[in-house]
Design goal:
The structure is a single chain. The chain is mainly alpha-helical and 69 residues long. It has a domain of 35 residues. It contains one helix and no strands. The N and C termini lie far apart (104 Å). The relative contact order is 0.05.
Length: 69
C-alpha cells in the first residue's frame, strides 16, 4: 500500500522542528550597556536630592506657618 502518513520517529529522537515547544522569549539586549548605569545613577541622585532637601523644606514650611500665625 502507498500510505502517506508520517513514520513515527524512534523513541530516542527529538520531535521534528514543527512539533518543538516554543522557546522562551530572549531578553532584549541593549545596544548601550552604559545607559543602565546612567539610569541607576540618575535614580540614586534623585533619591539623594530628595533625602537631603526634605528637612530643609520641612523647616521652611514650619517657619512660614510660624510667621503667618
Amino acid at each position: 500500500m502507498n500510505d502517506k502518513r508520517p513514520i513515527d520517529p524512534p523513541a530516542g529522537d527529538p520531535p521534528p522542528s514543527s512539533e518543538k515547544p516554543p522557546l522562551a522569549v530572549p531578553h532584549r539586549v541593549r545596544e548601550d550597556p552604559v545607559s543602565d548605569h546612567k539610569r541607576i545613577f540618575l535614580f540614586q541622585g534623585c533619591l539623594t536630592a530628595i533625602a537631603v532637601c526634605t528637612p530643609f523644606w520641612i523647616l521652611l514650611l514650619y517657619l512660614l506657618v510660624k510667621w503667618i500665625r
